[in-house]
Structures are given as structure tokens and as C-alpha cells.
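Review the following:
>
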Amino acid sequence: MNLPSFLKLKYLDFLQKETQALDYRLLVFLAVAGACNALVLAVINTSVESMNDGGPYWKHFFVFSLAIILFAYSLRYILFHSSRIAEEAICSVRMRLADKIRHCDLAALEAIGEVDIHSRVSRETQTIVQATQPFFSAGQAAIMILFITLYIAKESPAAVLLCLIMIIFGIGTHLRALKPYEEGLAEASKREDTLFSTLTGLLRGFKELRINTLKSDDVFGEFGTAAGRVRDSRTFLNELFSNNIVFADTFFKLWMGGVVFILPVISTSFTGTVAKVISSLLFLIGPLSSVVYVIPLISQIDFTVDNLARLETALDKALERRDDSRTAPLDLFADFKQISFRHVRFSYTNPDGSPGFEVGPIDGDIRRGEVLFLIGGNGSGKTTFMKLLAALYHPNEGSIRVDDTDLTPANTQAYQNLFSAIFSDFHLFDKLHGLRNIDPARVDKLLNLMDISRKTAYQEDRFTNLNLSTGQRKRLALVVTFLEDKPVYIFDEVAADQDPEFRRYFYETLVPELKSAGKTLVIVSHDDRYFHVADRVLKMDFGKLDLNNHTHFPRPDQRSHANERHSKQEK
């Protein structure tokens, strides 16, 4: 349904775009609810007036009862269906945003920021849901105001003229006060994002803070400052909102005062209808309060809808590289022989837009079935290289080739399907997502193999415990990668947090077994006593890497023999 022009609000457009569920039935029930509410007033006034003639009459009671029943049914329909539509809209936009997020490039996602995504998808979408019932309730209240105004016009044209003047003046004054409220909403949203970011740091850096009092005090001070700024922003908004409520209540009383004290002076015929008009105005106070309350709420909803649109625009921009028109099958590169880097460069962008750290040029080949160790100091670019290798980052210059095929947006997903990775900041899921027909016995065997079966188990299609030490978490991640059984493995310091026994087992047993199974392994490691396990050891310095230039490291026993020969020669 195309919404009528007088209902072209961002909020309604948002609901209609996401659900296509706003229809004329909702408008009909809004009209019925408003009309029946006004009809209750008219019947009451008529019944009171009929008391002079022996009333009230049974037909008045019948109309009153019918109006109440229709009003209750219509209002329930409005509130229930509007809430359902809002929930469907929020679910729809969350699903669409999540789908775009999962297909987004990592670099673009990092540029948008975790805080921005969390705030928009979780916190701000709730604003829309919470505002739905007040919004549609105010809609039926506005229709009721229209019918009561017509009723007042029937009773006293002079009274309705005064009412219209007062309503126009009041709404105009109210709307002029909205600009600082909207500006305050924008500022409060920014400050809440900062608060969320600080709280995230407090939780993720808990271990570091717990052992360093000064650092803990500084972070807590930052959190306190952010919390204070949110408090100030929200207090300012509440002050504006309170001013609006006070203005509205005062305005209503002045309005009734004008009817009582001014209209009888300017209209001598008004005296006979003063009771009906006053009762009508008293009946109007509730609906007018609902409308006044929802006006700043509309600004808040519009701000939220704009934020969601801004986030989606940023994600769409990040997805421009995708080519869904000819996506390659996932097994396109299943029989690959080598992965080649040709003059690949990648550079980060600083927050001010200036170029940041650059990785490259990277040249050379990674052959199927070989074991590569990657070494280099902190900040040398190893993690960036691995993200380029897994196509999580895309080169600014150069190309990545699989055999004779260039990596393109159309075949990137097929290429990424070759990999299973454990990055330094890896995340563990409690379920084995992406795996089908899982054999629990094999999972149990791997848990025993990694010596963590006493810490967690696989029951009811999930791991029972993820609250593990760093080394145990990495072992559980190894279980998952073994079950995924991909052709290429990326391990970033997987053995770094392990005890010496498991570290030796990883390098001298697991890695050779994976190689024997035809797997390609790229391992970031500083365990030089195990470098002999690698086919090649590649060193990265200042973002530079030559995949064809490697160093051979002999076995530890061979090193000792070489040292003995060297000593004899010197003698």
C-alpha cells in the first residue's frame, strides 16, 4: 500500500518499506477508535441534558455501550498490530544488516567500527519498538481531537474558533522547541557510543586493569567522564521534555480559562453551551497530552531511522566490490596447486584520512602441501599478510592468483572456502556451525587428543564449556579446524600459550600429520627450536616479504653436530 501524502513520515515509511504491512485497515481502526471515543463524550453530554426530560434513555446506554466496545476492540487492534509490524520491521532490518555485515570486507567493517554497529543494531532499534504504541495511540487521539472539535463547532462556532487558534499557537510553539531537542539527541547518541566503547575496554581489558591499579584508575576515570557526559546530555533532553509537558499542561488550563472567562464576554449565546464545551475540553486533555508527548518522540524515531540508514549506506559502500551476478561455485579452487602474490601492497588509512602503515610489496608463491613458518617482530605486518592471504583484506595494488586464475570479487568466496584459520583474536562458537552430520565420537576423540576432554565436552550439539584458559581455547580451536578439514590452515602463534609438552606435540606430531594429509600450513611462530619442521621459514620486516626467499633451519641435533664440526675446524 502506498501511504497517503499526509502520512509521509520517516517512521511510517520505514515500517512500510520493511514489512509492506501498513494497510487501510489500520487507518480504518484508527478512525473508528477516535470516532468512538468522541462519540462517548457526545452520548454522555446528551444523556446529561436529557435528564431534564426524564432521561437518560435506554438508547443512549445502547449507543454508549456500542461505542465503548468498538473503541476497545479498535484500540486493541491498533496497539497489537502496530507492535507486531514494528517488531517485524526491526527483525527485517537486523537480518538485512547482519547479512551485509557477514559479506563485508574486514577492513571496511573495521572502519565502520564495532561500537557503531552494536549501537545501531541493538540499542537504537529498541527505540523504534518502544515508540510504536505511543505513536499509534497518539494517532487515534488525533482523530478523536478532530471529532471533538467538530462536536464543539456544532455547539459553539465561537468556541471552536478559539480552540483552533489556541491549538495552532500551542503546536507552533511546541514545534519551534524541537530543534534543540533534535540536536541534543545527536549529541547524546555520540556520547553513548563513547560510553559503550569505554565499557567494552573495561571488560575486555579486565585482566590488565586488575593487576595495574593506576591503569585501572585511569580507565575508570574515562568511564566516569563518559558516563557523566551521557548523564548531562540525557538530563538536558529530559529538561526540554519536561518544559514541553509543563507548557502543554499550563496551556490546557489557560485554554479552559479563556473558554470560561473570555468567550461569555464576546459571545452572549455561549452561556447555554458552556457546560458541554468545558466537558469536551476536559475530554480533550488526555488525547492532546498523547499528541504533545509523541511529537518529540517522532524526532527521536526519525533520528534512529537516519542512523540505521547511515549504517546501511556505509555497508552498501563497503559491498560495492562484490559481484553477485556471477558468483563462482565454492569448490572452484578445490584442486589448486599454488597461490601466488604479484607485487601485492596494502596500506591502512589513519582516522584523519592520511596513509598509514603499508605492507608490501609481497611477491612469491605458496605451493600446495608445504609448511611455511612466518617470523618477524611485532608490527612487522605478519597479521596483515595472513588477512591478505585469506582475502579478508584486499590489495590496494597487485594481484593474488590461484594457479592461473586472478582473484576477483566473483570468486573470492570460493577462494576463502579453502581456508581454516586461528588468528590471534579468534572467536570460539559453542556450536560447530557450518558442519553437517557431525560424529560425536570423532569430536570426543579430538578433545582427548588435545587433552581438554576434562575441561569441556560435546553434548547436545554444542560444547559445554568455553570458559577456558588461552591455551585451552586454542586447543579447542584446533579441534574445530580439524573437523572443518580445509586444504589450507593459518595458525597465528597457536603454540605460544601451550605447555612445552603440547608445544612439542603440536610441532613434531600434529603439523607433520597435517602435511602428510596434503594440507598447506602457514604458521606464525617464534619457536626457533622447531623451525626444522617447516619446508620454508619466511621473515617479514617493516611490511616487506619475499615468499621465495627463505632460510633453512636444521634440526636441533643437526645443529649440535654442525657446531662440533665448526669447533674442530677452528682448532
